[in-house]
């Protein structure tokens, strides 16, 4: 279930504090941290598009068989309009996160996503090489 508004707001100071620590660390250790700094995106504000965000997680250890990570390593790509997930068993999920923040409606088989899926697959492949 999606966390309540109160739960999200109570976690906000922790998230902001963590981001500040990361920003300071990046400033001094950027030669050792891969990828681009997100600081320029924050400074620029919400307008425009940035580079996609990629995440990977290994297969679960002692996880419930119903957990998606139990199916093997997962990879994910978030663009300015879509969240693409490739599960360990090859099943794909796609969400329009700007209109579906809780990611309830998987649109991987919708007409909208069928036009975008090849582009998302290619972007993920380029990002994880």
């Amino acid at each position: 279930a999606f966390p309540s508004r109160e739960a999200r707001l109570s976690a906000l100071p922790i998230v902001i504090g963590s981001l500040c620590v990361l920003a300071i660390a990046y400033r001094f250790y950027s030669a050792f941290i891969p990828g681009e700094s997100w600081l320029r995106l924050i400074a620029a504000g919400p307008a425009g598009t940035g580079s996609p965000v990629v995440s990977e997680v290994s297969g679960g250890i002692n996880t419930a068989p119903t957990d998606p990570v139990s199916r093997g390593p997962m990879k994910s790509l978030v663009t300015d309009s879509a969240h693409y997930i490739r599960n360990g068993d090859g099943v794909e999920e796609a969400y329009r996160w700007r209109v579906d923040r809780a990611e309830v409606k998987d649109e991987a088989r919708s007409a909208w996503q069928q036009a975008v899926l090849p582009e998302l697959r290619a972007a993920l492949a380029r990002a994880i090489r």
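The radius of gyration is 17 Å. DSSP finds three helices and four strands in the chain.
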